[in-house]
Amino acid sequence: MNLFMGDMPLFIKRELEKLNETIAPLAKKASKYALWSLPLISVSVVNLIFLLFFMPESSNVVSLVVFAVLGAVGFALSKEAKYHKKEIHKQSRDYMIKRITSSDAAPEHSKDKYVALVKGQPVQAMQHFVKFLEEENRMDTIY
Description:
mainly alpha; single chain
């Protein structure tokens, strides 16, 4: 559970938990890839610089290739982490849009407005989604 959800109403917490369940596997992969990429890149760059510039006479091809491969793996993991982060944002946006459009309590014009906001302002999509949930809850309690 998110630390920032302490003062939120229960209906919002439930929706955010459902959203978190959908993106959790990708988030776990992305964090693993990011966690491993930085040390691999750092170790390889430092050792390559050390071997090439400070000990050029004692560096052999095998150690250069090993550190180059480690760096390449690190960069590949970093790129994969970035891809997974983009996929997390896409899945989050798709979940929000699906949830908004499937609402029975909110009027159509309100749903259209919030879908346009989520699509048009991806950085603030979560804020718009929470506002929609609050509006939906108000409409649901009125009727």
